[in-house]
Design goal:
Elements (H helix, E strand, L loop, with lengths): L5 H17 L18 E6 L2 E6 L2 E6 L10 H10 L6 E6 L2 E4 L4 E4 L14 H8 L8 E3 L5 H4 L15 E5 H7 L2 H6 L3 H14 L7 E3 L4 E3 L2 E5 L8 E7 L2 E7 L5 H5 L12 H17 L3 E4 L7 E7 L2 E6 L7
Parallel strand pairs: 6-7, 7-8, 8-9, 13-14
Antiparallel strand pairs: 1-2, 2-5, 3-4, 5-6, 10-11, 11-12, 12-13, 14-15, 15-16
Length: about 325
């Protein structure tokens, strides 16, 4: 019987390397390293609707002080390391969704947009790989007005990335972020930057955007759900076709390895952390009880899974990759 050990694996690797260096293996020309990933998209069905999850990229960065407001940085880092993130760092993915209802082509959230970092702003490349023309998008729905959800509304030269689309925004988020009074009260540098960014991306769309409220259909089969706390107007979506139904949870949780497993942890991005935690429990309890398919903007690509209760928290069960739609 073959027995494996760490020592055997290491010595075996060394022997292979030595053999290659010693010339005992036939020589081959070295293939050049690609140095980049392919554009990432994944299609799945919800009833008669075809949905495309497109990866806008991911950011890995040193965990800042206060990233989790109500636990120590050491505890938060331990959770990240337990999830095999690089030591001292966290990784946040970004995953917009495109829903083809047959009558409308709907984009939910637009990603980071151009010029932020090489590892993000990949929505246009993903759409091109998926064969989706930005000019064919009929409706762009923004779940809330944080930069990683709205910056992709514009191209690098400031033009509309989806020129033929109706742009829909949550009424309460628009009122909050476009308020000069609220901007004047912004306490942190992050919040000040958020206010400035909202105006940079959306101010010239004042009078053109369509505002929506919770409980309304923002597009055929797509209903806005109250998920406030992350921002005042933060919205999740129920997508239904026939007997099929899924939950697009937007930012109800950020990194699932931290905030789904620990739903009372307060991420720095939540504008009302106490309410955000209450919303998190409410929506995740519903998703778990109804065994819903859940789509998370910050879940690992393709961002699709199921949520189960696990002690005082929850765990994400990713869906199996299917080669057919």
């Amino acid at each position: 019987m073959l027995e494996l050990s760490r020592r055997a694996l290491l010595t075996g690797s060394a022997a292979l390397a030595a053999g290659a260096l010693g010339g005992s293996l036939p020589g081959h020309a070295a293939a050049p390293a690609a140095g980049r990933q392919a554009a990432a998209f994944y299609r799945y069905k919800v009833g008669d609707y075809e949905v495309t999850s497109i990866n806008d990229g991911a950011r890995t960065f040193p965990m800042p002080d206060g990233f989790v407001r109500n636990v120590s940085k050491d505890e938060a880092l331990a959770a990240a390391e337990a999830a095999y993130m690089p030591k001292g760092q966290v990784t946040v993915p970004f995953n917009p969704q495109i829903i083809n209802t047959g009558a409308k082509l709907v984009l939910i959230d637009t990603g980071y947009g151009p010029g932020i970092a090489p590892s993000v702003g990949l929505l246009p490349a993903g759409m091109a790989a998926a064969g989706i023309d930005p000019k064919a998008i009929d409706i762009v729905v923004l779940s809330h007005l944080h930069p990683d959800h709205i910056n992709g509304v514009k191209t690098a030269d400031g033009k509309l990335a989806f020129p033929n689309a109706e742009l829909k925004v949550p009424t309460l988020d628009w009122a909050f972020w476009m308020s000069d009074e609220n901007m004047g009260k912004a306490g942190s540098d992050m919040m000040k930057a958020y206010f400035q960014n909202t105006r940079k991306i959306l101010a010239d769309q004042t009078g053109k955007v369509t505002k929506y409220d919770w409980g309304q259909e923002v597009a055929p089969g797509i209903t806005a759900i109250d998920a406030h706390g992350h921002t005042p107007g933060h919205t999740a979506f129920a997508l239904a076709s026939g007997n099929a139904r899924i939950l697009i949870q937007s930012d109800v949780t950020n990194i699932p390895e931290l905030f789904l497993r620990n739903p009372d942890w307060q991420v720095v991005y939540d504008s009302d952390p106490v309410v955000a935690s209450q919303t998190r429990h409410k929506i995740l309890d519903m998703a778990a009880a109804e065994r819903m398919t859940v789509i998370g903007f910050h879940f690992p690509f393709p961002a699709i899974g199921h949520v189960e209760k696990d002690g005082t928290g929850y765990r994400l069960i990713p869906v199996s990759w299917s080669p057919v739609i």
